[in-house]
Structures are given as structure tokens and as C-alpha cells.
Amino acid sequence: MTALQTTTPAWANAPLRLRAARRLSTSAVARRLFLDRQVDFWLGQLHPAWSLTELRARVVQVIDETHDVKTFVLQPGGAWPGHRAGQYVPVEVEIDGVRVRRCYSIASAPGDARVAITVKRVPGGRVSGFLHDHVRAGAVLGLGAPAGDFVLGDAAGSGLLLLSGGSGVTPGMSMLRELAARGEVRDVVFLHAARSAADVIFRDELRSLDRAHRGLRVILRLDDEALAGPLDEAELRARVPDFAARETFLCGPPGMMDAMERLWAGAGARDRLHLERFVAARPRAATPTEGVTLRLSRSGRSLPVGPGTVLEQLERAGERPAYGCRMGICQTCRCRKRTGTVLDVLTGAVSSEPDEEIRLCVSVARSDLDLAL
To answer: I want to staple 332 with a disulfide (CB 3.0 to 4.6 A). Which of 122, 247, 324, 356 is the partner?
Structure first.
């Protein structure tokens, strides 16, 4: 008797091959992840700023700018993507076993081999105080990708006004350094307001640049020398008569920012004014919410909602969501809201869309919320 022989069609084994390929793919991914972690570990042993999975930088110099401002010169690892003048960078440090992130404007020009951030000590500031008190040359900081749209763009080094107050000088300094490096300082006014000469960040460099470039006019407006109060319209018109015709980049304390924004709007030149705030604009009033619950879908926790933003609610409950600027700019605290209604305290917009991204630091609950946390 001849045995019956059957031939299995090629398509019949396709699911088996597919499953085998998936197992092989999963195995390869696992091996790659394991090897990457091993490589990452040994890279860290050779140089603390080297990593395949994280962006890090070694502090190579700490410069005392004023009594409460320091510049940290950083040597980033090879993964640093580069920045544009005027952008900021998230900086991460570990404090008491907890990773904390803040955003700081980059002071160095884009073409520099090293990256500099200039940090003012904020009274009670957790990260600024840590950087000032504990970070020295040789320390390693975590970095995020540079971001922000407060950049020169198509604005050339002519017909330009860089206007700043206090530590708001940092992004403008990055722009001025870039223009100087490119030899494009043709018609630039740099007006900086500070409490006194001792409080002027980059004072010596600004004076040196002023002497070196015919197309630059540096104006240091000092409170202790001014006859009146803060910089106002009359003084600005006297110092920079053509301010409304200049492409202007403004960064400073809230009072100064608000006053200048009104002035540019009144002059019909609001479209030529670019703003970078390092303190959140005054939020719109938010009515208290009672009987509302915040549910964290991943952990299964349910929290009663009290006053404040969603970020503040989470922190009071012992959660540690990632955040940076705390004013709705850096996007570090973005989180998916599965269901519920929130109010944006900066814009006043109310949204009930399901499965949308919200910024925890500027969102207030207006109903029960379900977050992907």
C-alpha cells in the first residue's frame, strides 16, 4: 500500500511564519534594548555626559554674573541637536532623590561649541537654589531638546530693538552674540533695564560689544539713576524715537511686559513686537469647583479636586508629574485627558473634548476628570 502523501499549501504556514517572525522581532528588540542599556552604562563610566538614551551635559564652568545670577557653561553630549538664538532648554536635576525639571533661556550663540544657561536665584526656588548652591564644574545635568519660537527668524541685524529687563536679558544676549558672530550688527538697539549697575547681567560684555560695533547702541536703563519710576512711553520715545518701526524682541518682568505690549498696540505696531515671558501672565479668574473628582486611569487613584490647577492637585496628592515652566509654555506637563471639562486659566478657553492633550500647569478642572496617569 502506498502511503498517502499530502502537500501543505504555502499559504497555510503563513500564520506560523508570521508568529515566528514576530517572536524574532520581539526578541531582537529585547536584545537591542538590553545591549543599549549596557552600552549606556559603560558610556556613563567613561564619560558622565555620554548616553544613548538621554541628553546630558557636563558643567565646565560656573560664572558669577551678579550677586544672584550665575551662568553655567555646559558641554553637551553628541546627541545635542543645536539651538536657535532666543530658545530655551529644559534642565533636569535630581534633588532629594526626585528628578525636577525647569526651563532656562540659552544665552550662548547657536554656533558656540558649548551651551550656556544663565540662572537667577529665585527666593524659595527649588531648582535655581540647587543650581546656585550645589552645582559646580564637573557636575552632569540632564537636558531636554531646545524649544521655543522667540527667535530672530527672518529679522536681520538692522532695524532691530532688543528690549529686556532683569534676567530677561538672556535670550536677547543670545541673539546679539549670534549677530556679532555673523558680522550682521548693522542697526541694533539693545535697551536693558535693571535696578542698578551691579544688577546688569553681561554688563562688561555689552559695553565691549557696544564699542566694537558701530551699528549697535546699548542703553542701560538703571532704576537708581532714573528720575521717575519704571520705563514708560515718554522715556522710551526719547531713547528710541523709532521704536514702532523696529522689529522688537521683548523679555522682562510682568509689569514691564504688560506696559510695553499696551504701548506697541497703541502705536499700531503690535505685529512687530515679539514676547518671551519667564513669569506666567496673570491668569483669568477661575471659579472654585466643588464635588469634582480627578481620576488617574493608570494607577486607579481618585482624588478630590480643590483650588488650583490640575498640576497643583496632583502635587498635593503626592504625585510627581513631569513639568518645567509652570506657565503653559514648555509643554513638559502635557497629559492626555480622557474625559472631562477643563478651563485654561491663561486663555479662558473651556474644553470638553475627549482624548485631548492638556497642559496640567494651566488647566483647572470644571468637571470630573479622567487623566492617562
So the answer is: 324
